[in-house]
Amino acid sequence: MGQELDAARIIALTAGVLLLLLGWLLYNAVLNVVGGVLGGGLGVGLGVVLAGAFDATGGGAVALVLGSGVVGVVAGVLAFHTLGAISFFVLGAAVGGLVAIQLAPVLHGRFFPGADPDIVLFGGATLAAIAAGLVGFFARKVVVAVGSSAIGSMLIMTGLDWPLGGLPILLLFPAGVAIQLWPRRHEAKDDPDGES
Q1: Could you tell me the sign of the dihedral formed by the alpha carbons of 103, 109, 115, 116, in that order?
Q2: Is residue 188 very low, low, confident or very high in pLDDT (cuts 50, 70, 90)?
Q3: What is the value of pTM for the model shown?
Q4: Which residue, 11, 13, 18, 142, could crosslink 159 as a Cys pair with Cβ 3.0–4.6 Å?
Q5: What is the Cβ-side half-sphere exposure of residue 171, based on CA atoms within 13 angstroms?
Q6: CB contact burial 134-173 (16+ within 10 A = b; e otherwise)
Q7: Quick check: is 196 in a domain?
Q8: Which residues fall within 8 angstroms of residue 154, CB to CB, at 6 or more apart?
Q9: Which pLDDT tens digit goes with each residue over 131-184?
Q10: How many distinct structural domains can be found in the chain?
């Protein structure tokens, strides 16, 4: 039992450190790898089908398959990054809409007492969903950094058996967020418009 527990703690510490320090980079790497592999596989498969359909042989068939594979890799990476960004918008919109639905009776009673409650519900939920979706879309790096730092901090503390009553997590978590967001703040100094 002791060796298994030691191995589990080492795994927790390793995963925790990686998530704490590299969460955003790991997120992007996974999008790149998965998008590239799936897109490249689809591209190569399509290239084989096209080579057969056009009776391509020799170097022409190889060029068609390789070209389709390269296009597939690029398209896959772009598609996965686009879908990742859209998923943050959808998640933010869902949270914003749900919060607005819960607050609609309060808004209606306090700020819009004479209005139709269905209009207050629909309008409030729609506006809140769009606003929260845009926040999710534009703050996705922060969301990933905060989430991965929180999980990484907890894994590190679990691997260390929560020393000092868990107080070190109060330093680990903000340090992880700061480390992951540091390049963004550094880039902003070089970019006066803040478009980094």
Answers
A1: positive
A2: low
A3: 0.75
A4: 13
A5: 5
A6: ebbbeebbebbbbebbbbbbbbbbebeeeeeeeeebeebb
A7: no
A8: 16, 169
A9: 999 999 999 999 999 999 999 999 999 999 999 999 999 999 999 999 999 865
A10: 1
